[in-house]
Amino acid sequence: MNTFALELWDDEANKCTFYTVRWEDAADNETDKFFKKHHSKPDLKEATQKLLTFVLDSIGEDHGAIDALFNRFENEVVGLPNKGKVTVGEIVFLYPNFPLRLYALRINNRSDLVVLFNGGIKSSLTNKGSKELHLKWIEACRFAKRIEEAIRNKEIVIDTKQRKITLQDGNEEIFL
Q1: pLDDT tens digits, the chain, 176 residues: what are they?
Q2: Which end of the chain has fewer CB within 10 Å, C or N?
Q3: Residue 103: which region, alpha, beta or left (left: phi > 0; alpha: psi -120 to 50)?
């Protein structure tokens, strides 16, 4: 795997800090690529906006990365939005036949630190049947494995008080 940066994507929410990844030579990070690409397609604009609202509002502001909202397990990563009908408090989260998947990793299964990757159009019953999505899933799994390995090896550490991921020396510029 080539070198990539693990970088902050959004840290302004009350319940969750979001990170993303950027290939070393890329202008945009993977999460921004996902939202730009799908928001520009008229038939996916509404779904893209719903997914962005789900991430920033429902996960970021209201509930955090709780098990109920992170229940679509796909090996090393989770597909967003959630699977099936989920009720949290008085809110029902239900996304039947949702056309998009965005892949994510909860850091150490915490509800306050998430890495968002890329994703794609869910055009088949499985991600394997959705060619573009399947490739993004494979890539997300590889990113997730490398991030988890870096945590295990203490190359990167979790600052629980500030909801941040840093290098062992506290540097926030992380290349893996």
Answers
A1: 579 999 999 999 999 999 999 999 999 999 999 999 999 999 999 999 999 999 999 999 999 999 999 999 999 999 999 999 999 999 999 999 999 999 999 999 999 999 999 999 998 888 888 988 999 999 999 999 999 999 999 999 998 888 999 998 888 999 99
A2: N
A3: beta
Structure tokens at 161: 């008080």
Number of domains the chain contains: 1
3 state SS of 23: strand
Query: Domain range spanning residue 114?
Result: 4-175
